[in-house]
Design a protein that fits this description.
The protein is an alpha+beta fold. The protein has helices at residues 33-56, 75-80, 85-91, 95-114, 138-150, 159-173, 206-210, 219-222, 241-251, 254-273, 317-330, 337-348, 377-387, 390-393, 400-405, 412-433, 455-462; strands spanning 8-9, 22-25, 128-129, 132-133, 182-183, 188-189, 351-353, 356-364, 367-373, 478-482, 487-488, 494-502, 505-512, 519-525, 532-538, 541-547, 549-554, 559-567. The strands form five sheets. It has a six-stranded mixed beta sheet with strand order 1-2-17-14-10-11. It has a five-stranded antiparallel beta sheet with strand order 12-13-18-15-16. α1 (33-56) runs parallel beside α16, α9 packs antiparallel against α10 and α16 (412-433) runs antiparallel to α17 (455-462). The protein starts with 7 loop residues before the first strand and ends in a 17-residue tail after the last strand.
Length: 584
């Protein structure tokens, strides 16, 4: 008989899941503040989401707004309002939040298939065709797809979802002749505007960009008056690799993996051939700058051009997604080198003003310009967490979360979770006070009141950098499943804290906050079981692992610290749940 004051590790069979070893934890642990805050945040996300949906969705799931096309506010914004709801569910939020997303997703597909923009060539017969945007840029396409792309984390066996992901990926892999977006000879996506009706190769009008005129607001169209040249490839189009990545993770079919590595590999080679600078136009002939007089820094949304205003430059969004996916698939650090080289180039010409490091945001005939404070922490965190190179950590040693992982910021978990609960509270107060009406409300107006907060949960429970609202995939050191409810996410009452990350090790504390009922949890190594476990050590006792999962059984009110060793990126990734993986 094992004393309840000790932690025990037993290798036993499981009635609900027999896919790996079982760790039994019986040592009492009073629930830490961070654990109670985690559970409160998961509940609050679902409760606040219900109030948001009740205000901004009608009974059909249509967004209560004015339906418009374009970059000011358009179909993408309808779903960007919900960008992290599916992610919250995959973390362990109640089932209700996923049902609300499904209502919004299905409703908006009908809503924007019916909505028309008569002045827009690609949207005259509907803004969606075959349940997908007809043709627009991937700043917006990715944002509209963000929640959909995370849906597979919670519902990887949903037949309609798999069917849609195959169809959407086929628009870009060259398999669908009705949407010839991809040129396999030059390995490019042929236009900045692309989608289910294929690429737009004729000059883009102000209506193609901004939609129908809005009385009293000529600036909505005027801002696009010089943005007609959209021919050729752009790094934003690399966001489309998230479709192929998810299709592969869902089906295991190599054709999706092959296309992703082909397209990302072509871009990797271009960046390195361009001295490490990511070009923002590739001509239809495959040449860097081919549609912009040979200038690598040309292109709408590029290094030297944004229609009429501002300093927008989307050079990194697509590469972050595509090169990160390629690295996850292969473990090949060469896919990270373009990102690393680009950041190195920016730091090489940095300026320091009043103690602040400023990096250039633009490049033109005159060289680097548009110096601003560093906006690349998301990418820099990714690079370090993928590579664990000291050189990749150096620029961000002061990052609060990474400092916590290094043992230098012990108060971070409580501070971060309290801040997230505050964001939920503020968002709910804002939506309750929102006096806008459907006949004047833009599709992106509710975004500021999205009450679902997931960043701290991602950092603390999964050891994951926030993938953002851009249409990314999730990179995580661990993920959790409930073998009793047969669903993704933390089991009821269980809280998790990733305390330390190393290249081959994670230190994780698990606690059952319920003093009455025992809980069970499956720990998976990697967001997609891509890491291979070697051992888990608890209370000084070590158990060998030989796979991507193990089960933890927590006695009432019990908790313990686990040290897990692994070989990263050693397995074929999959979205299948642990009990459905069958040795993949």
């Amino acid at each position: 008989m094992i004393s309840r004051t000790l932690c025990a590790i037993l290798l036993i069979s499981s009635t609900a899941w027999s896919g790996g070893p079982v760790v039994v934890i019986e040592r009492p642990m009073p629930a830490p503040d961070w654990a109670l805050a985690q559970r409160a945040l998961l509940r609050a996300n679902a409760e606040a989401a219900a109030e948001f949906a009740a205000k901004y969705l009608d009974d059909r799931g249509f967004l209560r707004c004015v339906e418009r096309w374009g970059g000011n506010d358009g179909p993408d914004d309808a779903m960007e309002n919900f960008h992290n709801w599916t992610l919250a569910y995959a973390l362990g939020a109640p089932e209700s939040i996923l049902g609300l997303f499904e209502k919004a997703w299905e409703g908006h597909l009908i809503q924007y298939t019916r909505a028309r923009a008569p002045s827009v060539e690609m949207a005259r017969e509907g803004m969606y065709f075959r349940e997908f945007i007809t043709a627009f840029d991937w700043e917006h396409n990715g944002e509209g797809l963000a929640a959909f792309l995370f849906y597979g984390l919670g519902r990887p066996d949903e037949p309609v979802y798999i069917q849609r992901m195959r169809r959407f990926a086929g628009f870009y892999t060259g398999e669908d002749p009705t949407a010839p977006n991809y040129d396999p000879k030059h390995k490019i996506i042929r236009s900045l505007h692309n989608g289910s009706r294929g690429p737009k190769l004729t000059p883009a009008t102000v209506y193609d960009w901004g939609g129908e005129p809005v009385a009293g607001h000529p600036e909505r169209l005027e801002r696009y008056s010089t943005a007609s040249n959209i021919r050729g490839d752009h790094p934003l189009n690399l966001c489309a690799t998230a479709l192929a990545m998810n299709a592969y993770l869902l089906t295991g079919e190599e054709r999706y993996r092959d296309w992703l590595l082909e397209y990302a590999g072509a871009w990797r080679d271009r960046v390195l051939a361009n001295g490490g600078n990511i070009p923002t136009n590739i001509g239809l002939d495959g040449r860097i700058g081919g549609e912009w007089g040979g200038k690598w820094y040309g292109g709408v949304f590029g290094w030297d051009f944004w229609p009429q205003e501002s300093g927008r430059n989307y050079f990194k969004r697509g590469p972050r997604i595509a090169f990160g996916s390629a690295f996850l698939l292969t473990g090949d650090d060469g896919y990270l080198e373009p990102l690393r080289r680009q950041m190195r180039n920016l730091y090489a010409v940095r300026r320091v003003e009043n103690g602040r490091v400023l990096l250039p945001n633009k490049h033109g005939d005159q060289g680097w310009y548009g110096y601003i404070p560093n906006r690349h922490r998301d990418l820099e965190r990714d690079l370090y967490l993928w590579s664990f190179r000291d050189a990749d950590l150096e620029p961000i040693r002061d990052d609060p979360w990474l400092a916590f992982l290094a043992g230098r910021n012990a108060g971070y978990p409580g501070e971060a979770l309290r801040a997230e609960l505050g964001r939920v509270r503020a968002a709910v107060a804002g939506l309750r006070a929102d006096a806008s009406t459907p006949d004047t409300r833009a599709s992106d107006d509710p975004q500021r009141f999205n009450p679902v907060a997931t960043t701290a949960l991602l950092n603390l429970t999964l050891g994951a950098n926030d993938p953002g609202s851009i249409g990314n995939i999730l990179h995580a050191r661990v993920r959790y499943f409930d073998p009793v409810a047969r669903r993704a996410g933390l089991a009821p009452d269980v809280a998790a804290l990733v305390e330390s990350l190393r290249e081959r090790e994670v230190v994780l504390t698990l606690v059952n906050t319920n003093p009455v009922h025992a809980r069970r949890l499956i720990v998976q190594l990697g967001a997609y079981a891509e890491h291979h476990g070697e051992s888990v050590t608890v209370g000084g006792r070590r158990m060998n692992l030989d796979g991507p999962h193990f089960e933890v059984r927590l006695a009432p009110g019990a908790g313990e610290r686990l040290t897990i060793t692994m070989r990263r990126y050693a397995r074929r990734p999959t979205l299948a749940f642990p009990w459905d993986q069958n040795g993949r």
